[in-house]
Predict the structure.
Amino acid sequence: MPTTCVVGILWGDEGKGKVIDYLASDADFIARYGGGHNAGHTLILPSGKLVLHLIPSGVVHQHTVNVIGNGVVVDPLHLCQEIDKLRERGLAVDLGKNLLVSERAHVILEVHRRQDLWAEHRRGSGKIGTTGRGIGPAYSDRCARIGLRLGDLLRPDALRRGLAGLAEQKNALFHAAELEPLDVELMSRELAAAGERLRPGIVDTGAVLRQARLQGKRILLEGAQGCLLDVEQGTYPFVTSSHASTGGAFSGTGLPPHEMRIVGIAKAYATRVGEGPFPTELKDGTGERLRIAGKEFGSTTGRPRRCGWFDAVAVRYSAAVSGADELVLTNLDVLRGFAPLRIAVAYRLADGTRTTALPAFDLDAVTPEYVELPGFTEDLREVRRFADLPANARAYVQAIEQHAGVAVRTISVGPERQQVILR
Ligand code: IMP
């Protein structure tokens, strides 16, 4: 199967960057299909740590073409900065050659960032805990059909007209909210300059990918965030504003929904950053130990991640929604020394009913039902074969497969490229 989609199974931060980097060595094309620079994909390279926010992880491989698909919302100024940073690290970023950006991708403007922060402030205690990157407002404008697309940056008249239309709508609202009005002239100049820099890379990426698929090229689709942050399938309203699950892979790239291998990425425990329900969250010392052991701090915002036990109910749901044929289980090494290990296998709803399905409402009111397994004390980082894992670590992985109903084909036992077990 020439196309593989890598999708986060819970609330993002599952270690997709490392998995994509690993799979990228075989890929001709790597395409992002949703989200924006709210994502943070961490790669540990021989030259040190590299965090990518918008540019696909294949940029570290010489032979891959990296595509930012039409479903991504792009802050052009951020994109220019990210390109500069990669070049400073000695990586070749060649617009039009190894980096293509969809002309249909919607643009994140400074005004979206301000709106994002303002909306969070207004939500008060009901805040979502967004990354403050303007993601929600940019997608809202796309749906409201007043957004600008990247291709507009190359068409000065269309750009000015689009910005004037946007300003007319926003300034009325901003006036009431006592926010600064939009300066159309300044925005036009900045955006047109960014457009000129990006011009060689702004193309019809859907056509490129469809052609590549017909030619039998290997395409890797890089999901951002995770299924439970999907605007429709996730823990609404505590979600991001894109289709982070596999559904977004088709609409967000322009590839047709033909057969593809779908690889779900799940951590050996659960984490979440930002607000929203998290049934297996550990608010005690064990959660704190997990955070420290797993270095669980957001790669985009630096916020501490909330940590908890593996949730087989949520993973089963997300695997079903995303169509994940297999799981990559990451950070198994981090669980060393935790005993007993727990896996949530069902929930008790507020009225006492037991369920193994993920409820769409009142997820914050469920009580997880756990199975307990003995822990392991051995260091897993040098293990490369499943049979060489300690018996308790093997039993834990098998229990995950049994309760989540999906096969674990790959296990990551450390941040570095070679620290994986293939089964
Ligand atoms: P937004 O995407 O900035 O609007 O944030 C909405 C929610 O998604 C917040 O809870 C964020 O913390 C979360 N979120 C967005 N991007 C990521 C990510 O890459 N990893 C983990 N959480 C994310």
